[in-house]
Design brief:
heterodimer, A: mainly alpha, MetI-like fold, 26 helices, B: alpha/beta, D-Maltodextrin-Binding Protein, domain 2, 2 domains, 5-stranded mixed β-sheet, 14 helices, 13 strands, globular
Chain lengths: 576, 378
């Protein structure tokens, strides 16, 4: 057995890289170190700098002392952990359930449900939250207003400005959709033969799900859960809008307020953000120990079964469940987003002549709109395509080459989420400004593309890692035996097998690039401004109506990309 | 099929990456009309300034005002054929960006329109501003008779770096009269009436901006005890989101506001909301230029374009647009737009005002901040 393994290792070793090229064991960690490690290093060093911006640096521990001297920081940390844990746990249950229904059962209209989850994920959070405020505000929310007209109801029954209100907005806006988006391709990649074997052995569906499906998909589920939890710690937009009236302050809003201070307290914010780093390290260790020494191969050379579980009488109730979720979590806020774009004042239905086309006219006439649209498309397409290629290679390196170098690369891939987005952006800015190529990178579309690709590293790497884990080594070995070079094997065998996940990565990167603000905000210039920054500008100036119109355009672009991506992904995987 | 796709994929990737590598160029400058042979002396000054600016290609303007970007920048480009690249963001963010660029030996911003706080605390000490006074060359701009009090005002102690071309009454008390009667709020102590507990909104008094300025003003004129009672005992609700403050006011959730922006007050009035804006009877009203100070960054990447902008901004044409875009009455006496602005914004002759943009008061705001933080529990 050991001789067979040794032979396999030799073949895989041989497949890894073209002869004579610099070793990937050196290149990959070095590249990742420069792109990801250096910005974090810049941040950490500068967190000790207490000089006024633009002055010669003066180093001391003052920023760190200030960061943790604030008595309220521990309560904020507790709130963050409580909100993050609860929404991650609820999102996990709902997300796994919906992903399973979409990918592993004969749910009617599964592709439409999946498509709607993608839209749900990509609606920008500001207009989304505003839509829910309009529905669930205890003073004037339309749903509260309607419910209070019932004879047995004495007051508002929903309060969005509360712990559970914040949880609801997070779950509805991305908390569940993120799980569905990331897990559905993994469920789909899993051959049904394992489940069929379980059922043949007499296990009922719940047992099959518990004992076979979920354990096999453990890397993907664990990785996604980690990502959701880290994202929840970092989130601040919803808490910023709903938190003050609920009396809830979270860790990320503390950091956000420091960054908005005058001058911005980057050093103190970085010191506070260092707790993210510790959390990430803890989670990464947990992940590694959970999957260590286990085989998660679901795609091998032994054939692939796409049979789906028949829901029988439960088909329509299951669809009803999905439809109810979509109505509450997507349709209601989207209707108000669309309506808001035609209102003279967002949410004010009782003023004279409340509806107008003015917001759309002004948006399309805005000279910044067309140039921002062009920039956004170039950025999003570049980020999507580059992300697919780069992260499939990195994931392959991490999974197939078990070595110290791959461990380093794996750890580095998490770092961009180890600090809040805007701090990572600051680190990249310092990196760009420190290089001789700063005039090419700073303020340019290229710099923004690089920054977003780097920022996407955790989610893209984890997704691709889970996909590579599912592909059996014998397929690569067969390619080698047939005389294929590594590049041919990658292009003709591996990448097509990874295509559904790669397109998910590409689409996620594309959509993320379209709506990304925190990574871009310190790096753009007037000539490289993307639509997301235009959206921010409308938001800063309180123009929610034009902001809604622009958000609808962004969602429409993402919807089109989602359809195209889904079709290409299906065609490549041979299921379409 | 898969080979076709792989080729398509590689080609698309290369095109996208190459497109990303190309730094996008903005709209090419529109060719301006040539001066006629019989042009007057002032016209020739404009023509010379415009020709020099066009040779530089563009102007980079930083502002967080959408109307300045949409209206003033477009009008400037149309008149002079000089493209305006606008960088937007809060004043403090833009100044932080400028300071970072300076540290790296870069300078990308020519002109900044912002509030005074960050400019005075960071740009001025770092000598990061160019002299505007020395750039003003158009006769209709330099003529003292065109300006209130017979001079063009600057906010800095040297009188040449921070142009203060507009002036309005700031931080009016705003009430929604559907919920609060005007007679109930005449003097500052009226706000301490227990019936107004939980009814007052303000910008955050612990962060730079209108909330901190008002808290400092009240601290100096009414004392610490009043400030504590107003913000803590009366449970004043703070937000730094102007739109949220405006919506709270419109719906009567917080029908009293200590520092709503002029633009929001005017917008709500236009929509038929019953608002009143006024100053306390017992305190001098606050005056200042809000976020409308004009600064030229040194080093200036496009000095001639900046010079053209500065002269145009201070001209009658520029100030007519600035008064509307910024919602602030111009200090130019010949600006018709001032008459279109409501009286609660326009300083009246003969009345005493408290200048919140006085250089010393700006320093007071900074020094009082720690005391406020301890007083209000930040």
């Amino acid at each position: 057995m050991s001789a067979v393994n040794a032979a396999r290792r030799l073949i895989i070793q041989d497949l890894r890289w073209p002869l004579g090229a610099p070793s990937p064991s050196l290149l990959v960690p070095l590249g990742m170190g420069v792109a990801i490690g250096l910005p974090i290093l810049f941040l950490l060093v500068n967190s000790f700098n207490v000089a006024t911006p633009g002055q010669a640096p003066v180093y001391s521990l003052e920023n760190w002392a200030n960061a943790f001297a604030d008595r309220t920081i521990w309560a904020a940390l507790w709130n963050s952990l409580a909100l993050g844990s609860v929404r991650t746990a609820i999102g996990l249950v709902l997300g796994v359930g919906f992903a399973w229904l979409i990918a592993r059962t004969d749910l009617p209209g599964a592709s439409i449900v999946e498509f709607l989850f993608r839209i749900e994920l990509f609606v920008p959070s500001l207009p989304y939250t505003l839509g829910f405020i309009l529905l669930l505000d205890p003073h004037y929310g339309l749903i509260n207003d309607a419910v209070q007209r019932l004879p047995f109801v004495g007051g508002p029954i929903f309060n969005l400005y509360s712990f559970w209100g914040i949880i609801w907005v997070h779950l509805a806006s991305a908390g569940v959709a993120f799980y569905v988006f990331l897990l559905t391709p993994l469920f789909r990649r899993m051959s049904a033969h394992l489940e069929e074997a379980g059922r043949t052995s007499g296990a009922n569906q719940l047992t099959v799900l518990r004992r076979i499906t979920l354990p096999v998909l453990l890397p993907g589920i664990l990785g996604t859960t980690m990502l959701v939890f880290v994202r929840s710690l970092e989130a601040f937009e919803v808490e910023l809008l709903l938190g003050p009236q609920a009396g809830i302050q979270v860790y990320s809003t503390k950091i956000y307020n420091l960054l908005r201070d005058d001058p911005p307290g980057f050093g103190t914010a970085t010191a506070l953000g260092s707790l993210f780093l510790l959390t990430m390290i803890g989670l990464a260790l947990l992940y590694r120990s959970a999957i260590a020494g286990r085989d998660f191969t679901t795609v091998s050379g032994r054939g692939f079964s796409t049979a789906r579980y028949r829901l029988g009488r439960l088909r329509w109730p299951a669809l009803g469940l999905c439809a109810s979720w979509m109505t509450m979590a997507l349709l209601a806020p989207m209707v108000f987003l669309i309506l808001g774009s035609f209102m003279r004042r967002y949410g004010f239905f009782t003023i004279a002549d409340p509806y107008t086309l003015r917001n759309w006219e002004r948006l399309l006439r805005d000279s910044a709109f067309l140039s921002s649209l062009k920039n956004s498309l170039v950025i999003a397409v570049s980020v999507g395509l580059v992300g697919m290629v780069v992260y499939s290679l990195i994931a392959y390196f991490v999974i197939r080459r078990r070595s110290a170098a791959s461990t380093v690369v794996d750890a580095l891939s998490w770092l961009p989420w180890a600090v809040p987005g805007i701090l990572m952006s600051l680190g990249l800015l310092w990196l760009f400004l420190s290089t001789p190529s700063r005039t090419i990178l700073y303020g340019s579309v290229l710099g923004i593309v690089l920054a977003i690709v780097i920022r996407d590293s955790p989610v893209s790497t984890q997704l691709m890692k889970a996909a590579v884990l599912q592909v059996g080594r014998e397929l690569e070995e067969s390619a080698k035996v047939s005389g294929a070079s590594w590049l041919t094997m990658y292009r003709r065998v591996l990448f097509p097998l990874l295509a559904p996940t790669a397109f998910t990565v590409g689409l996620l990167a594309f959509a993320g690039a379209l709506r990304d603000i925190s990574t871009v905000v310190l790096l753009y210039s007037g000539s490289s401004r993307p639509l997301s920054i235009l959206l921010l500008e409308y938001g800063i100036s309180g123009n929610l109506e034009q902001s809604s119109a622009l958000a609808i355009m962004l969602v429409s672009m993402i919807a089109v990309a989602s359809v195209v991506g889904q079709r290409l992904g299906s065609r490549l995987s041979g299921s379409g | 099929m898969r080979r076709d796709f792989a080729s398509w994929f590689l080609a698309t990737t290369m095109i996208a990456v190459l497109s990303a590598c190309a730094r996008p160029s903005g709209t090419p400058p529109v060719a301006a009309s040539q001066p006629s042979d019989g042009a007057s002396a002032p016209d020739r000054v404009w023509d010379d300034l415009a020709a020099a600016a066009r040779a530089e290609g563009k102007l980079v303007l930083a502002t967080n005002n959408t109307a300045v970007r949409e209206d003033m920048a477009d009008a400037f480009t149309k008149r002079f054929g000089v493209e305006v690249e606008v960088v937007t963001g809060r004043g403090s963010d833009t100044v932080a960006r400028i300071m970072r660029e300076r540290a790296a030996g870069l300078s990308t911003v020519d002109v900044l329109i912002s509030g005074l706080g960050t400019a005075s605390s960071q740009l001025y000490p770092a000598h990061a501003m160019a002299s505007i006074k020395s750039m003003l060359v158009v006769p209709e701009v330099t003529d003292p008779a065109k300006w209130r009090d017979g001079k063009l005002k600057f906010a800095d102690p040297d009188g040449e770096y921070i142009l203060r071309s507009v002036e309005s009454i700031q931080n009016n008390i705003v009430i929604n009269t559907d919920f609060v009667k005007r007679d109930e709020v005449r003097k500052s102590d009226d706000l301490l009436n227990p019936k107004f507990q939980g009814k007052i909104a303000t910008h955050d008094p612990l962060q730079n901006g209108g909330g901190l300025v008002v808290a400092t003003y009240l601290m100096k004129l009414k004392g610490e005890d009043y400030v504590r009672k107003l913000f803590v005992d009366q449970k004043a609700q703070s937000s730094n989101d102007d739109r949220q403050l405006a919506d709270w006011m419109a719906r009567g959730i917080y029908p009293i506001n200590l520092n709503m922006t002029e633009e929001d007050v005017l917008d709500l009035m236009k929509e038929g909301m019953k608002l009143e804006a006024f100053s306390f009877d017992d305190l001098p009203p606050q005056t200042g230029a809000g976020g409308a100070f004009l600064i030229v960054i040194d080093p200036t990447p496009h000095p001639n374009a900046a010079k053209l902008w500065v002269n145009w901004f201070a001209s009658k044409e520029g100030q007519e647009m600035a008064a509307i875009a910024l919602g602030e009455p111009s200090n130019r006496l010949d600006v018709e737009a001032n008459k279109k602005l409501p009286q609660f914004l326009v300083p009246q002759p003969g009345r005493d005002y408290f200048d919140i943009n006085d250089w010393n008061f700006t320093a007071d705001v900074e020094s009082i901040k720690p005391r406020l933080q301890s007083l209000l529990g930040g």
